[in-house]
Amino acid sequence: MLRRNAVAVGVTLAAALVATPALASATTGAANADPLYSEAKVQAAVSVKPAPELVSALTRDLGITGEQATTRLVNESAASKVEPVVAQQLGAAYAGTWVTGPTSELVVATNDSKQLTTILKTGAQAKLVKHSLAALNTAQAGLDRRAAEAKPASVHAWHVDVRSNTVVVLASSVAAGQAFVQASGVDKALVKVEQSNEKPRTFYDLRGGDAYYIGSGSRCSIGFSATRGGQGGFVSAGHCGRTGATTTGSNRVAQGTFQGSVFPGNDYSWIATNTNWTPRGVVVQNGATIPVNGSTVAQVGSSVCRSGSTTGWHCGTVQQLNSSVTYQEGTVSGVTRTNVCAEPGDSGGSFISGDQAQGVTSGGTGNCSSGGTTYFQPVNPILSAYGLTLVTTNGGPNPTPTPTSTTTQQPGGTWAAYTAYTAGSTVTYGGSTYRCLQSHTAYPGWEPPNVPALWQRV
After folding, report:
1. 257, 244 in Cβ contact below 8 A?
2. Which residues pair with 272 in a beta bridge?
3. What is the pTM for the complete model shown?
4. 338-347, pLDDT tens digit by residue?
């Protein structure tokens, strides 16, 4: 822990513990005062009421009993209140505190043997060490300054370890760590270098509606997080990028690659991301997030909201399912028409109804000042096309992608170009039967085996 300002700590403690005379007298250092730590534990036992789920998690992950977990939480609460008082009492001789054992008993360290009695009077365990916490913090600050001047490529991390009474430096090799310490000018007696295979990296979340960039130029929005096997990523609009194009996140950190992209005809894509990015089952809403818990299709008239990196969060209603729209680049079929506004850069962003994913922003007319019409590519055909699983907040099983129409038709004979097919109808082609996943008009080259987004073999 870092050293605190003694005056501020005294004021804070007095306010927190004013109801307990024994604690108040202990802060004065009176010889016959009741043990500070012992009294703090009594107080914590009354106020700390851990949830059963928390106790269960500690039992599972720390390998302790439920009773030990509860006692541990009480002792840790007491320790956090006692630490600033003890730090103030010991002053320059303070060398840090920590908790130990399955029930987290408090240990206080000092580099002055005369202060051991002071510590023991609090009810905590005492440990005599060589260096004060102030000296260790000063050494760490010296390493920080050196790192700011020249990034240490082979040195991964460093920290004050109060239990070993040293500043620990973690590096790919001991020699690299020692060179870093030498260059910093810090007293080597205060530092312990350890070889470590750690390669720390930052982590970022994939959230519906957040921006991403394609190559060095255009910007689009994330639709929904998805996975395929152990590979994470997200779905977005096809017109945002072609297969093989690379992406960076809103922070311009390397993110992923388009594994598949279809436009026109449909308007969808699948971007696989690197391990720095974690798929989350949420959609951004004006600084907050909305959970995603499935992909059941909202019917005509239902409310629907869109999240995008240009205009943020806007809502409206579903006007028509299974629409076709012609853009300059060509016709896209099977999209849903809404009266939600959108603007450039919102492309690919999330459409959601309640907590059910609906689709990714395709295109439209108007803007968010005067209003407009926006079409979205339904998400279920994207999931089917690439064999993806939608990432949800609740982590439960996702419903089987639902066609955008519940109409069921009898087999439609042999597949033929220039024929209008409705979602749910079946055809034969090449001796196999296929079910239509979304309504469309067939064109040459769109034979069922060639367009898994439109047809599923049964």
Report:
1. yes
2. 233, 257
3. 0.56
4. 999 999 999 9
Cα dist from 237 to 25, 107, 125, 155, 375, whole Å:
67, 57, 61, 41, 11
Cβ atoms of 286 and 303 closer than 8 Å: no
Q: Which residues lie closer than 8 Å to 325 by C-beta, 6 or more apart? A: 331, 332, 335, 337, 362, 363, 375
Residue 312 bridge partners (DSSP): 308
Residues identified as active-site: 239, 267, 347
pLDDT of residue 233: 97
* CB-count exposure of residue 276 (10 Å: 0-12, 13-18, 19+): middle
In 3D space, the residue among 336, 387, 394, 392 whose CA is nearest the CA of residue 363 turns out to be: 336
Instruction: Find how far residue 403's CA is from the centre of its chain.
Output: 31
Residue among 399, 400, 394, 403 nearest 293 (CA): 394
Rounded CA-CA distance 278/275 in Å is 7
Helix (H) or strand (E) holding 457: strand 455-457
Do residues 337 and 375 lie in contact, with contact meaning Cβ atoms separated by under 8 Å?
yes
Q: How far apart are CA 221 and CA 231, in angstroms?
A: 20
pLDDT of residue 415: 82
Tallying the residues shown for the chain, one arrives at 458
Residue tagged 């010889």 (tokens): 31
Cα separation, 107 vs 403, whole angstroms: 62
d(CA 423, CA 105): 65
Nearest of 224, 248, 243, 260 to residue 380 by alpha carbon: 224
Is the pLDDT at 151 greater than 90? The verdict is no
Q: Which two tokens stand for residue 52?
A: 């059963």
- Provide the token pair at 360: 């990714």
Q: Residue written as tokens 């430096």?
A: 169
**Helix ranges restricted to H, 257-345:** none
Under a CB-based contact definition with an 8 Å cutoff, are residues 233 and 246 in contact?
A: no
Q: How many helices (H) and strands (E) does the chain have?
A: 9, 29
Q: Is the distance from CB of 256 to CB of 271 less than 8 angstroms?
A: yes
User: Which of 279, 284, 153, 186 lies closest to 227 in space, CA to CA?
Assistant: 279
Average confidence score pLDDT of the chain = 84
User: What are the pLDDT digits (tens) for 109-131?
Assistant: 999 999 999 999 999 999 999 99
Tokens matching residue 292? 């995603």
Lowest mean pLDDT segment, chosen from 14-28, 195-209, 245-259, 422-436: 14-28
